[in-house]
Structure formats: structure tokens, C-alpha cells
Design brief:
Length: 301
């Protein structure tokens, strides 16, 4: 197996399913509250692991009960505990999630210990990063931390993937370190001010990103490389919860690229993973195994 290095966040998620989202000041009665393991970094690390990659996840947890639960969960899935750092003063991150009957979600995150993952921790992990094939990161940890991870990865010849979520303004120096940028449609608009995914992707290319993959939910994905664009259709599934679908996509994409697949092939594999994640509730509970991804790909080939 080729190694994927993931740098990012880990949270405990608290989710309520309701018939619809409330308006401002309104209370909507929903179903049961359930807890699950989440955070974009952890979700993507687990997604890559389930897709078949060897994965190292670098994160900062709180030294509270939530952090200990997350650490035990991740190590039980085969992720090494040495890079799951613990902070004595900040609580573990938490996310509050609402899911409507169409499977759409609203999410608010209290980052907690995720914001304590600093540049110095990335520098200390440089020998570990150097052993990887692909580095995957997101924006739920401090931006300087993300940029340092990308810098070290490029210095050691890794292919770099940045999932720009949540979308914030990104400096040119950071974008030039990114081999594959994976915004969803809203994030592409947030980064460029353009509502059409194709010109938004073209603008991001012009800013220094080598390849851009815009995920479009039920409308598939758009890949922009250089002067060419290609659209990929979605996989037809019965979606009940879109939580972590993007994370499933990114983790599977990193796994496929670490195996040496072409970007086109990796996007198809990742699209199947993202689609499958919408067929189950929760975050990491919904992430598909490699056999499921391959089965869906084969049925639509």
C-alpha cells in the first residue's frame, strides 16, 4: 500500500435529523440525537484507510474524554497513535449538525484543540511526512499549519491535495504548493467570486494550482487541468445524508493517486466513494470500504 499523510482536524459530531431546517428564531422538533466521530481531517484519513491506503493522520486532540475516545477509535482502525497529539488545555473539537429529510446538512464547528495544531508540530513530523506519497489537508486547522505541511510535502516530492473547506482567502504562495485543489461548488465561488464552476476552476489554475476538481454533488465533478476541462457524471444512489460525502471523495482520491492512478481514474473512484457515503447516516460511519467502491464503479463502467 502507498502511504497517504493527512494533516487536519478531528471532532466529535452531534447530529439531529429533522424534517426541515428551522428559520431564524424557530425551533423544529427532530429525531434522536446521535454522536459520531468526525472532523474533516479525521474523516478523510478514515476514508483513505477504508479505500485501501496506508494512512498517517497528524492531528491535535484534547486530553479530555472526547479526545481519548477519538484516539482509541482511530487507532482501532489502524491509524498510528504517535501522530495523534494531545493538548492539556484546549477541549477536543465538536460539531453540531442538522440533517433534513432530503439529506442536506447544516454544520457549526467549535474547533477547540484543532486550532492548537501549529507549525512546530508539522516541522517535528517532517520525517514522517517525507515517507508518504500523497499529502492531503483541509482548512479546519490554522492556515500557517496547512502551508507548512504543503511546503514540507513538496520539498520531499509528495503529491499535494488541498480540500479548501471551509473556504477562506488563500495566498498565492500557498496555492502554488497545491497539485490538486478540491473545492465544492460553493467553495469555488467563495475562492473566486464566480458562480460558474468552469471559469472558477480556470481562475484557480491561473492562480497557481496545477489541477482543480470541483465537486458538484448530484451533478458529478469538474476537472480542470491546464487548458482543458472534463466533466464526470455522478453515481446514481439513494441519498439520505450528505455529511462527509466530500470527505469520502477526498480520502478516496488521495488513496487512488497514492496508488499511481491517473487523475481521471482517481476522480471516478472518488466520486463513487462520495456517492456511497450519502447512502448512510453519520460521518465516519458512512464512509465506504474499498470493496463497495469498486463494486459501484464496476456496475456503472
Amino acid at each position: 500500500m502507498s502511504k497517504v499523510i493527512v494533516v487536519g482536524s478531528a471532532n466529535l459530531d452531534f447530529t439531529v435529523a429533522a424534517a426541515r431546517f428551522p428559520t431564524v428564531g424557530e425551533t423544529v422538533l427532530g429525531g434522536d440525537l446521535y454522536q459520531s466521530f468526525g472532523g474533516k481531517g479525521a474523516n478523510q484519513a478514515v476514508a483513505a484507510r477504508k479505500a485501501g491506503a496506508e494512512v498517517v493522520f497528524l492531528a491535535m486532540l484534547g486530553s479530555d474524554d472526547h479526545g481519548r475516545r477519538i484516539r482509541h477509535h482511530l487507532t482501532s482502525l489502524g491509524l498510528p497513535g504517535e501522530t495523534l497529539l494531545m493538548h492539556d488545555q484546549r477541549p477536543t473539537g465538536a460539531a453540531l449538525i442538522m440533517v433534513d429529510q432530503a439529506g442536506r446538512n447544516l454544520i457549526a464547528v467549535a474547533p477547540g484543540s484543532n486550532q492548537a495544531l501549529g507549525v512546530e508540530h508539522i516541522q517535528q513530523a517532517s520525517p514522517t511526512i517525507a515517507q508518504g506519497a500523497v499529502l492531503l489537508t483541509q482548512l479546519e486547522v490554522p492556515l500557517p499549519t496547512v502551508q507548512e505541511a504543503l511546503t514540507i510535502a513538496k520539498a520531499h516530492g509528495l503529491l499535494t491535495i488541498l480540500n479548501p473547506a471551509p473556504a477562506v482567502a488563500l495566498p498565492h504562495a500557498l496555492l502554488t504548493l497545491v497539485d490538486v485543489l478540491t473545492p465544492n461548488e460553493g467553495e469555488a465561488t467563495g475562492l473566486t467570486g464566480m458562480t460558474d464552476p468552469e471559469p472558477a476552476a480556470r481562475m484557480l489554475n491561473e492562480r497557481g494550482v496545477r489541477s482543480v476538481v470541483v465537486t458538484l454533488g448530484e451533478h458529478g465533478a469538474l476537472l480542470r487541468q491546464g487548458d482543458t476541462s472534463r466533466s464526470f457524471p455522478s453515481f446514481a444512489v439513494h441519498a439520505i445524508d450528505t455529511t462527509a460525502a466530500g470527505d469520502a471523495f477526498n480520502g478516496a482520491l488521495a488513496c487512488a493517486l497514492a496508488e499511481g492512478r491517473s487523475l481521471d481514474s482517481a476522480v471516478i473512484f472518488a466520486s463513487a466513494a462520495g456517492a456511497l457515503a450519502t447512502t448512510k447516516r453519520g460521518a465516519q460511519e458512512s464512509l465506504p470500504m474499498r470493496s463497495e467502491i469498486e463494486q459501484l464503479c464496476s456496475h456503472t463502467a
